[in-house]
Specification:
This is Reverse transcriptase domain-containing protein. It comes from Solanum verrucosum. With 91 residues, this protein is mainly α. The protein has one domain. 42% of the residues lie in helices and 0% in strands. The chain has two helices and no strands.
Length: 91
């Protein structure tokens, strides 16, 4: 979803079609200023959402410290190269 769509709930139209039919305005500094203000609002809302998500994540996060020669269990799962074609059900 585009930031504009997230902010206003509708898709963004191109600058050519921002105005109603019959309404003729020049695209100028006022339009640029309005767009910059909207971008600032979107950035603030993204920062708010990001900080909220960070707070939720930090609750479950804990610092891990390891020393040399410490034993640790690692979970390893293949990401690429493992493909099973034609497998149906359990083998």
């Amino acid at each position: 979803m585009a930031p504009y769509e997230a902010l206003y709930g509708i898709r963004c139209r191109s600058p050519i079609r921002w105005f109603e039919v019959g309404e003729a305005r020049l695209i100028g500094p006022d339009l640029v200023r309005q767009a910059m203000e909207k971008v600032k609002v979107i950035q603030e809302r993204f920062k708010t959402a990001q900080s909220r998500q960070k707070a939720y994540t930090d609750v479950r996060r804990r610092e891990l410290g390891f020393e040399v020669y410490d034993w640790a269990y690692l979970k390893v799962s293949p990401v690429k190269g493992v493909m099973i074609f034609g497998k149906k059900g359990e083998a």
